[in-house]
Amino acid sequence: MRRMVFPWLLFALVLLVAPLVFAQSAALSLLSQMGTMVLLCLSYNMLLGEGGMLSFGHAVYSGLGAFGAIHLMNRMADGVLAFPMTLVPLAGGLTGALCAVVLGYLTTRRAGTTFAMITLGLVELVAACVLMFPEVFGGEGGISGNRVIGEPVLGISYGPQIQVYYLIAGWLLVCAMAICALRHTPLGRILNAVRDNPERAAFIGYDPQRVRYLALILSAFFAGVSGGLSAINFEIVSAEYVGALRSGAILLFTFIGGTAYFYGPIVGGVVGVLFSSWLSAYTQAWQFYLGAFFILIVMTTPGGLASLIDRAWHLRYGDIDAKRALRLGLWLAGALCALVGLILATEMAYQASLGSLAETGAGAAPLLLWGWRIDVHAPFPWVIAVLCMAAGTAMLMAWHRHGRPR
User: Fold this and answer.
1) Disulfide engineering: 253 pairs with which of 59, 244, 272, 359, CB 3.0-4.6 Å?
2) pLDDT reported for residue 23
3) Are 247 and 63 in contact (CB under 8 A)?
4) Rounded CA gap, 312 and 233, in Å?
5) pLDDT at 370
6) What is the DSSP letter of 108?
7) DSSP string, 172-188
8) CA angle at residue 198 from 195 to 203, to 5 degrees?
9) pLDDT one-digit tens code per residue, 195-232
């Protein structure tokens, strides 16, 4: 019992202390985005990790849930409805679940590649409908709202970002516990059985399509809650919320974190927001780094970052001998060396492209990277980048051949 309670107490403590450690306004905004993305990745992993359903349209349910929440906020601002702002994400979740009831019956009739292709067509269909009905979805500009409605309750108005963060953190904690509990219910167990062997699950009396349908509805509910939290956080919802680009980002972040572990989507959501929000402030090539990082994870660690954390945890308690520890160190050294070379080559190439596009023809300005002033036209930095990537790749290949855990 203690082993089950301690991780949740630690998770709650992290959520409570995080804004006290990172108290800057930009950091609070980043933490709020992490919270909504983590919940979205957890909901997606109910399909991919627990049910083996590869969906390319999960953003549909979070996006429609966000639209439902923003419409409710506007009705509240107009005085038509009296509803507590704290429960607005619940309305987003119900909207997402209702949409899954309508759309999920069609998508879950088939599994595997057929299911994935249907969801891909569905996300394009919904994205087109959002633009076709601007009176409902606001067109390309989207719909804006105001989260500060009425008089503050117990001093909480959700105007300050810190209050919005704790709202997101509270919903994240409750929903994460609910998702974890669902994994241990009969529905969660039979969902694993349908993932592993649908024919045998049908043989013992369970309809695989109905199990997938129920799982999709529950997953869409939590995705809608995430969408409602995003609507409160940004106070605007646009067509991008239901697009294929957002669905692809959810898939990437969840897989990077690790679908076989419950905390994998949590790690993936945090890393994904760091790439898309934090790293994008420093370099225009952040999407290139995200794609390269995803390829690296797929090729070397299919279990995601969570599998690396799990190995490091066992190493901490002596379950891994010195030989395996050396292999893990080889992977880390190879990945770091390849990453340094990749970053150096990418930033130099991007800086050189700016010079080639300049109308003056004066050439690219020197690159400032890690405190160094680098001439992108000199051959020596390019040689260093190539050598780093080659050395890192060689170490990773050696690890893959001889040191990869079996």
Assistant:
1) 272
2) 79
3) no
4) 35
5) 65
6) T
7) HHHHHHHHHHHHTSHHH
8) 145
9) 999 899 998 889 999 999 999 999 999 999 999 999 99
